[in-house]
Amino acid sequence: MSREDLAFLLYEWLDVETLTARRRFAEHSRETFDAVLELSEDMAMSLFAPHNKLSDAHEPRMRPDGTVETIPEIKKALDAFSAAGLIAGSFDEELGGMQLPTVVARASTAWFQAANVSTSGYPFLTIGNANLLAAHGSPAQVDTFVRPMLAGRWFGTMCLSEPQAGSSLADVTTKAVKDDGPEPDRYRLSGTKMWISGGDHELTENIVHLVLAKVPGAPDGVKGISLFIVPKYVPEGGVATDAERGGAARRGERNDVVLVGLNHKMGNRGTTNTLLQFGDGTYAPGGRAGAVGYLVGEANKGLAYMFHMMNEARIGVGFGAVALGYAGYLASLEYARNRTQGRRPGEKDPSAPPVALIEHADVRRMLLAQKAYAEGALALGLYCSKLVDEQHTADDDAERARTTLLLDVLTPIAKSWPSQWCLQANSLAIQVLGGYGYTRDYDVEQYYRDNRLNPIHEGTHGIQGLDLLGRKMIMQGGAGLVLLAQTIAATAERGRAAGGEAAGHAAELSAAVERLAEVTGTLWADGDAQVALANSSIYLEAAGHVVIAWMWLEQLLAAEGKDGAFYEGKRAAARYFYRYELPRTGPQLDLLARRDRTTVDLDPAWL
Amino acid sequence: MSREDLAFLLYEWLDVETLTARRRFAEHSRETFDAVLELSEDMAMSLFAPHNKLSDAHEPRMRPDGTVETIPEIKKALDAFSAAGLIAGSFDEELGGMQLPTVVARASTAWFQAANVSTSGYPFLTIGNANLLAAHGSPAQVDTFVRPMLAGRWFGTMCLSEPQAGSSLADVTTKAVKDDGPEPDRYRLSGTKMWISGGDHELTENIVHLVLAKVPGAPDGVKGISLFIVPKYVPEGGVATDAERGGAARRGERNDVVLVGLNHKMGNRGTTNTLLQFGDGTYAPGGRAGAVGYLVGEANKGLAYMFHMMNEARIGVGFGAVALGYAGYLASLEYARNRTQGRRPGEKDPSAPPVALIEHADVRRMLLAQKAYAEGALALGLYCSKLVDEQHTADDDAERARTTLLLDVLTPIAKSWPSQWCLQANSLAIQVLGGYGYTRDYDVEQYYRDNRLNPIHEGTHGIQGLDLLGRKMIMQGGAGLVLLAQTIAATAERGRAAGGEAAGHAAELSAAVERLAEVTGTLWADGDAQVALANSSIYLEAAGHVVIAWMWLEQLLAAEGKDGAFYEGKRAAARYFYRYELPRTGPQLDLLARRDRTTVDLDPAWL
């Protein structure tokens, strides 16, 4: 991660200091933001980065007694993270938080994800969980579960997938039945959840699972899904406010949630990833089997609540991909500056000394591509995070509606584009290092393995494509697309006014976004969803390239009139993106405009 | 790997039975070819595939005494492979071989590489080594080293790279000094070689290294490189013919070649990959330190000899990438047929049963893409292998020159295109399996890790681009490009004559190859190598897509007028390639036609 680039994006481009004019952030200033960023950098470098390879080589292990063993460096790093107040960073002061803007908190996470994506997974899941409960939980639930999470005493998870239902939440079969007893929102859950990151460990004294389940008699499909809090240990004395309890929540008896097994993955090996069994009778809280769970909000509205977390988790996944892409870029850049190899084309004297790798045009292309992918995607992640702040602190309903809509449209892109292209960046980083890059002696192969998860979890690439083209672009009568196009057009207008290279880019960007809008109309012209959505992944990729081209014009404009290598680098990366990348959308949009039926008409027997 | 597809390509398309009309292959028939393919399939499935994951999880280990421990399944599989005569398959009968056509031998390797790329690496390196020595070694060297390798008693390696010189062979510093004693071609070598696959192990009684080194006083650069045979154990009684020796060669005293360490890689973990030290005095063969080596052919011509091996090794690398791409395709296809998930777009009834993954358009796209990549690249690998046979058994010099030139032009593409796109296929295979694909419980993540090596070794992607655009396309006054264009044009002409879909593809193919030729001319218009070669990797990718489009038109024509799912599948994959893939070359060729200077003009300080 680059301190200089974060400062450029936050202060010179997004002008996040203006957020301090909003009441929620009034106590803040550039100094407090910088203090958080510096703390994050220091802690990430000193406590997270040093065990990144170690935790990859020494995966969590399930002991014979069913508990999980992780290397001690993980707990040490996380205890320091919690103690520094970073879990609570963006939460209300009333909850012990710092009320940091989301965009600053997000920038802080980049340091941790670049240093160690596996270890930082635990608190980031916890933050997402706590965010959801702070918004939708009852005061007693907030006191009982959110406060211990923000203090780092308990960690959180999200439990959506089941072994038979990954992307298809409509098919969730975990059951929740009203429990006996005085607590009205207390249920007993039974079922199996798969792919649960942080689903078990001994890093904290309790784990707060947020679980999607169905109450008997609920409607079929996603409209019958409810959301429950299912802690690993039932809170002592049940769910209550701290005032009622007379102090902070403490864990009570063991709940009926059992670790069945750990998943062994290609990367992200340091985060436990689990198969959990709820309510099989291994434990009997309150004297009888069944996992105790507490209903969040109203029954059958679980998916809507979960999407509160999911949308931020999706931006977070994209941001994690960015951090890995950026880390690989910097590692390969350093290697290319120092390693000598070969000679320039046309050099006839074999006794001439070899040149640094960075002198070769193809190596520069691979570095510039990584820079364009990582810095373009970083800009998008921060832009979306600032939209979250604007949404939360909007002056009026119109502004709130506008930022919400723009964020809705951008979320599938902010999730998927970095997951695809920062993975590609990691592949290029390996390539720059050559044979060394393929060994486990260097960091880049791990980045590549770690990053390969990102197009899969929190909604696969294909799911994001369906979300963008099948929902976001057409909701409210196409208002999302119109708003995106208008917002990009405003940047293009500034580009045209700036003249020079910016004007050239602006013209290409305008043409691309107009073509995207036109193609969207063509795809939905007759409302046949099967044909319209047949190539939604390709639509997602084309829209992503248009959006990142927009981010590069934005950065170019923020660098305008400024001298020095840093700003020249921004201009070079923007140039690369417009020359090498944006043109890729041409054939993609041509295919979409033809309403291509190749896959629709395919007989599966032909495969 | 698919038996049906291999039969289609070998017999219905390439018509390899006609090779039996050539004297070298006169003893063969479709029956003998099929017998080899069936044997290969059986042996690959029963002895190679079962330990593929095991050897990934249990890498070779260096014991304290400096020897290498590998899991016993590897030796068992390789002993059976050697005993079946498969190492000697394509060699002369006089050497104990079967005189199989290269194209059939290559098809046989697909089974082994798909089953276990690491274990099959040992004999395939040995075959390449033996091929080189059979062509360029003296009769005594052939008897002493080639015969034990063909019998599987000894294995072979190629030692090019050094720690400070990977792609840049001009900078090799390993030294060879004439040895005392009666043998005129006996030298003493000293130096360090890196990335040596199969560089040490206990699988065979001896290891025959082919080592690039420089004799003192040799010219600078690649013109001063000589090639030496440096066995792990010096042959007893020195190098002699079997007649002189009175029997087969036996290993004598330990040579001064020491295993310094094993490289630990992301994939390909079952093949030992080593750092070797030559001549550091650990051993003293003949009573003094220095690794004993035998000069092959003439001094200073080592690189030309090595390229005899390298060119076939490059086609072999591409073919290995194909095998992995194909294996991932079939694994994800089976998964997609059996796993149910979600519903079709537009299905409003949430209680409708979930459909198989293969019913989703995006999953079909990912399967069809894999099919198009793997089967297209398989066709190219077999086509090039048949060119090797035609070259070796040509009726006259003109035919030999033609096949040699076409093979020269196609080699960098046959190496790099599958390495790029069959890796992409493996990524799509993971994506089809979703979270499961990312776990080590399934095979596809290993294919992806294994395959990531292929764009790196035997000449990186960038090196192949320089070779294609900087040498192959312009040598002999551009004759290579002309021959390639003519050969493709002949296929396009047949496509036009066939009419229908083939005629449409033919028109697009003709346009693409004409554009490629035109752009090649533009790039070299003023002979400025720096600008011409700045985007040679992109040129390589565009040329590769054109060549694979050609392979798909060829397959379409071979399937013409034939009914059934298999042939419909060929037509669908061809359609996919022309609709989704070939258009990617448009923006690539536009960039090249502009003689883009982005990377040339880049100041490294801006990165």
Automatic annotation (TrEMBL), chains A, B:
<dbReference type="Pfam" id="PF12806">
    <property type="entry name" value="Acyl-CoA_dh_C"/>
</dbReference>
<feature type="domain" description="Acyl-CoA dehydrogenase/oxidase C-terminal">
    <location>
        <begin position="300"/>
        <end position="466"/>
    </location>
</feature>
<dbReference type="Pfam" id="PF00441">
    <property type="entry name" value="Acyl-CoA_dh_1"/>
</dbReference>
<dbReference type="InterPro" id="IPR009075">
    <property type="entry name" value="AcylCo_DH/oxidase_C"/>
</dbReference>
<keyword id="KW-0274">FAD</keyword>
<dbReference type="Pfam" id="PF02770">
    <property type="entry name" value="Acyl-CoA_dh_M"/>
</dbReference>
<feature type="domain" description="Acetyl-CoA dehydrogenase-like C-terminal">
    <location>
        <begin position="485"/>
        <end position="603"/>
    </location>
</feature>
<dbReference type="InterPro" id="IPR037069">
    <property type="entry name" value="AcylCoA_DH/ox_N_sf"/>
</dbReference>
<dbReference type="GO" id="GO:0016627">
    <property type="term" value="F:oxidoreductase activity, acting on the CH-CH group of donors"/>
</dbReference>
<keyword id="KW-0285">Flavoprotein</keyword>
<dbReference type="InterPro" id="IPR036250">
    <property type="entry name" value="AcylCo_DH-like_C"/>
</dbReference>
<dbReference type="InterPro" id="IPR052166">
    <property type="entry name" value="Diverse_Acyl-CoA_DH"/>
</dbReference>
<dbReference type="InterPro" id="IPR009100">
    <property type="entry name" value="AcylCoA_DH/oxidase_NM_dom_sf"/>
</dbReference>
<feature type="domain" description="Acyl-CoA oxidase/dehydrogenase middle">
    <location>
        <begin position="158"/>
        <end position="244"/>
    </location>
</feature>
<keyword id="KW-0560">Oxidoreductase</keyword>
<comment type="similarity">
    <text>Belongs to the acyl-CoA dehydrogenase family.</text>
</comment>
<dbReference type="InterPro" id="IPR006091">
    <property type="entry name" value="Acyl-CoA_Oxase/DH_mid-dom"/>
</dbReference>
<dbReference type="InterPro" id="IPR046373">
    <property type="entry name" value="Acyl-CoA_Oxase/DH_mid-dom_sf"/>
</dbReference>
<protein>
    <submittedName>
        <fullName>Acyl-CoA dehydrogenase</fullName>
    </submittedName>
</protein>
<dbReference type="InterPro" id="IPR025878">
    <property type="entry name" value="Acyl-CoA_dh-like_C_dom"/>
</dbReference>
<dbReference type="GO" id="GO:0050660">
    <property type="term" value="F:flavin adenine dinucleotide binding"/>
</dbReference>
